[in-house]
Amino acid sequence: MASTATIKSFPLPPAFTAADLYSIDEDGNAAAVNAERVSRMNRTTRAASQSGAHPVYQGMQNASRSQESFQALKRPPKLTGTSTSKNGSNYTPPASPTSPRSPTSPRSPTSPTSPTSPTSFAHEGIEGPRRRAASTGNRMNLNTLQTSSWVRESVYQSSPIRTAFRPDRLDRGPNELFNLLPGEVLDLVLQSLKGSHLNWNSESCATCMMRDLCSAALCSRRLYKHARVALYEDIQLVGSDSAAHKKKFKQNQGNRMSMLRRTLRTNPNIASLVRSLKVPHPEPPLNWSVSKGMLWLEQYEDQVATLIMACPKLERLSGPTPNYDHSFRKIFHALSTRKCLKDMTWVIDPASTPAQQQGGQRTDSPSKRGQSGPSMLEPSQGDAFLDSHRNWSSLTSLSILCQPGATLAPHRLLSRTLTHLPSLQHLHLCNLPPNAFNDNNLLSLPPLKSLILSRIVGITSNGLTSFATRSNTSHLQRLELRNTPLTSLPALARIFSHLPALKYFYLAQSFPPVMPETDSFALWMMPYLASSTIVKLHWDITSHPNTTNEADDILARSIEAGGFPALTTLRTPNDPEGRFQALCRPVDHIILPNDRFQRLNAMGGIPASGSFSAPSSPISPLHKSSTTMSLPLTIYATPLPGTDLQTARLAAQSRLEAAHNAPRFRFTIAADDGLAQTLGTVGFIGTLGSKISYHLLPDDGAVDEQGGLVDVADMVGDGGEALGGSREGCTGRWNQKEGEVADKKEKEKWWHTERGRWQRIEAI
Question: Which residue intervals make up region (Disordered) (predicted)?
């Protein structure tokens, strides 16, 4: 009795015959299948004989039109030296080159090939329910086999990675599985290794990271290529040199930079890998005094300049940034020659010589200088600053901080400078005087993705409104206004409505924007302030610490009316009545564990600035304009840095605890005996279902005392490199197990000089 089965047919390689491709009926048997096949072939034979479309060979004119003759007619000519079946019984060895060719026809009815004996799949048509003639167009050859689905399946099944990972493989060579991993996987592994050392909450440091990358590079030749790229593309030299290096090279600082410079100069391939470079903070010599001068600082800057020149594709220089006083410095000249530079931070000092007008013009009077700011630069100084930007066609981020008394006047200087930066996307300006940046400069800015204006007193609300309505601001995603005279609330409404891509908006100033009396009727139409794209909003008005001002009230009502549908993060440090906290998602607690017990990064602790010059003095008063004449006199006072976030968290937590004692809902439970009991659920502050989070944490790199915002002074600061006070460094033993006994050599292997955990701080 014949058994039946169901087989899913797939195209098969040439090793299988055409008979193996026939589909088997589940309800039939082998005899029925063969009978149906013969009947179908007979019908095809009669149709072919009636049509007479194919010529008949001479030796077959008197032969009956049988199944064999039809197969012979439909079969293409057979090449000399080939066989019909390689593995079957009808296999014929290739003819000898010296034997004469047989005069008989290559297609003979007495040929051993018959319909019942399968032929080679590479030379025969597929016979069966869908039998077709084996013409050149439909005959399966090597070209069609390569594009068939069975070929793709066979390539996947026989791939080297799948074959090597088979569990029955016992003949694996050394490192066979590791060598089959793609390079992208190795890069991800090394990036994860670097992240485990350099994260904000990591106990390790950059020195431990470089040590582990060096160990990974020595594991195998294949991993060496990827580990070398991960090691040299972002070089971080943090902290002071070790005592052994100081003794060996007889230098107090710069020993690691000297060794790195020698490596980069002798190996150009490694030098071309460097993209980011972090230089250590300069250290004065032990016997240094003010009377001996600053020769050691000049030597340090020159050493950094030579290291920059050894990196042809440098994109970023991190660490302490020397101040620029419009005089020639080797370090700034070296940076100006790096054509791949993408990030630059300027800390402008007053000019080394008094700025004077050229061409016999008189200088500004003292009263005029007090109104317009510092005097202008000399033409040669302006041209030198402009020439420094000519090679930076790849620069994407530019930050400029003017120290008190410094300037970039005339205002056309900055506009001309930005024309040499076609790739600029992020601009951060801080404390520029009115004669260096005003409304004209604001309107001439190129298309940007982020703009930060901190203590820019030369612009007005009308200038901000005109800037928002320009076509080149359609891609602006981030706008920060810190202590900038935004005096008009309608101007803020126009900014929100005319920036279609704005996602992050920050406003921090000591006075609230006011609403003109003629536009008071518009407050009945809520939301007055609206933006469909803003995701994060920072709002800090410091002039009303105890009551809600009018601008806060309008913003809170606008958010409640649905004016910010995409808003997910709201940071309002000055929220005395909890208006904004009530609009956000309810939370259990807001304060951090150490807010009530200690204060980190106290004002009298480690200085935030890591520049080479003295800390900046208070900012000059705000210059009066036509739009600020009606404001109170507090606008001209020294701007406050911002509301302390630690104080804001404590105030928000006290409001939250007070709400816990006041039940939000009350339930009355009645018993069968008629007694009723009233229970109240614990209260909370917030709106159920709201997707807005009440965020009172500083940005990465910022501190609570500054309002949680990153400024240029933070970007050029130490970034956690300096040690002292409550700040502890890393000695390389962060992963040492407790109680494990190791010999002296093993301890020295993992130990290194104590260095701080430096973090790169970015305002973008």
Answer: 38-141, 351-383
